[in-house]
Amino acid sequence: MIDRLPTSPPPQAVRLPVRPDAGRYLVLTAVFVCAACGLVYELELVALASYLIGDSVTQASVVLSLMVFAMGIGSLLAKRLRCRPAVCFGLLEAALALVGGCSAMVLYAAFAWIGESRVVLVGFSLAIGVLIGAEIPLLMSLIQRISRRDAEGTVADLFAADYVGALVGGLAFPFLLLPWLGEVTGALLTGGVNVVAGGALVLWLFRRDLTVRWRGWLLVANVTVLALLATATILVDDFEQAARRAVYGDEVRVAIHTDVQEVVLTGGPSGPLDLFLDGRLRVSGRDEYRYHEALVHPAMRGPHARVLILGGGDGLAAREVLRYPGVESVTVVEVDPGVVRLARTDPALAVLNEYAYRDPRVRVVAADAFSWLREPRGAYDVVISDLPDPGITPSTKLYSQEFYGLIERVMPYGGRLVVHAGSAVSRPRTFWTVDATLRGAGFGTRAYCATGRLSGFTTGPDRSTGTASAPRDWGFLLAGAGWAPGLGLDPDAPRLRTLGPSALAAAARGAERTRLPALPPSTLVHPRYMD
Binding site residues for S-methyl-5'-thioadenosine, as ranges? Predict the structure, then answer.
């Protein structure tokens, strides 16, 4: 938050409407508020960039490194502004409130209507960093005009107020602003707090240090910024609806923010249904059967009385499992109960999953799969890992060697594990890293893939690939603890639309053609999916 503080000759004291000690505390309060707002802007850019672009580690590194660099530039530029610190600080805070407050809205608009937000992200990171970097030198000049205390004590006070403000802003963003207001409204409200704090400090505490003309200009600037932010806040709902239609099309039927993610349902009940989780296509009613048949049925060859599904809150994997009469229990471990609730209650999605959650054999556990598996569990004949793409940073722990070690503990010898491992064709390094990780955990594996995401299907984003269109295949790994199960179908398998013995053999050959040898496994300490 604080870069280098330039030194200058002691400024002349200014007449204040309060005692010098009270004025000093008011300036430190402004430092506290500005630091909190500045950190909210940073975190908001990181969160929105991770959501829109993907790969949260890379986006956080880009945003934070650019902002720290820009803060240094802003601190140097502030040298030229210290001749009129009150005026310059007032204008700077108005600009920072406008730029930081509108950053989330502009970034989302660029993604929705242009399809590219990286340039906008870089621009806002640099602009906000320059403005934040110029704050402390100007505040240092203002506090020196109030009191002639030693410079070391002043710097210590500024550092303390700045760091405590950053702490409050950093905690307020994930626990208050994001869950209660969302990214766009939260950023706009933060901008409003920012402009009020900066404007009140200058126009009241330092009003005798301003000419009548400058007081008028600062008042107009602050009122204008506040009016713009208030207008944008009023229009947030309309903006989000328009942006959502631009991203997902005109058939958005359900759009909710759960405690875990954004869930969007388009199409249905008369047309094809599409389910997006955090902007990534998870279910396409056009061809989801290709994915779920390939995911479930090869693993059901053999004992399958007790089945564990990790993820799969949409109920579609459970639908395929329940087609086997020998299934006695199905446990679905889903981190987001909002998805399960939607799968139970939405008419189109419930029809698609054939009302799987009404079956008494199905039990739902709302928990993170990694944490849930760490507790002692019973044995499962089949474990189905229907989890998000391994190339997404939050998912890497669910494709780690440690995670597969936990799964191995709940599998008897002869049990099977099937893993959705991303696209074997478009992302072979990621796919075969999952294979290497399973082997590192002691599993024998068989690779196969399924074609899908019908040609020409481009509705909505799929940020797992960084493109507007979805992958054309899904890759799977069938694994056994200490043994490699053969690919095939159970003799009692129901009639399938596309999957048969010959199709499964071709799917295995197609996956093998993409093999990359000698890849290291991925672990919690060293994730290897960010290719």
Answer: 261, 334, 368-369, 394
Percent of the chain with pLDDT over 70: 92
Work out the pLDDT band at 194, boundaries 50, 70, 90: very high
* Domains of the chain by residue range: 20-241, 285-512
Q: Which CATH class is domain 285-512?
A: alpha beta
Q: What is the pLDDT of residue 297?
A: 97
Which residue shows structure tokens 């990214």? 183
Task: Tell me which amino acid residue 36 is.
Answer: A
Please report the pLDDT score of residue 344 as a whole number.
96
Between the alpha carbon of residue 406 and those of residues 52, 140, 307, 463, the distances in Å are 32, 55, 16, 29
User: Which residues have CB under 8 Å from 360's CB, separation 6+?
Assistant: none
Half-sphere exposure of 524 (CA within 13 A, CB side): 8
Any idea which residues carry the catalytic annotation? 386
With CA atoms as reference, report the closest residue to 398 among 418, 425, 368, 424: 368
CA nearest neighbour of 35 among 147, 181, 139, 126: 139
pLDDT value at residue 38 = 96
For residue 467, what is the DSSP state?
B
Q: 187, 57 in Cβ contact below 8 A?
A: no
pLDDT at 17: 83
What does the alpha-carbon distance between residue 470 and residue 40 come to, in Å, rounded to a whole number?
33
* CATH architecture of the domain with range 20-241: Up-down Bundle (1.20)
Cis peptide before 269 (omega within 30 of 0): yes
What whole-number distance in Å separates Cα of residue 298 and Cα of residue 446?
Answer: 10
pLDDT at 77: 93
Read off the pLDDT band of 6 (50, 70, 90). Answer: very low
Over residues 270-295, the mean pLDDT reads 88
Please tell me the distance from the alpha carbon of residue 122 to that of residue 160, in angstroms, as a whole number.
Answer: 29
Pairing of strands 262-266, 274-277: antiparallel
Whether the pLDDT of residue 74 is over 50: the answer is: yes
Task: Identify the CA nearest to 100 among candidates 43, 181, 151, 175.
Answer: 43
Known binding-site residues equal 261, 292, 314, 334, 368-369, 394
400 vs 12, residue with greater confidence: 400
Q: What is the CA 280 to chain-centroid distance, rounded?
A: 11
pLDDT at 526 over 50: yes
pLDDT higher than 90, residue 126: yes
Residue 92 near residue 176 (C-beta atoms within 8 A): no
Dihedral sign of CA atoms 499, 505, 510, 511 in order? positive
Angle at 424 between CA 265 and CA 415, to 5 degrees: 85
Known binding positions for spermidine: 292, 314
C-alpha 212/C-alpha 87 separation (Å) is 12
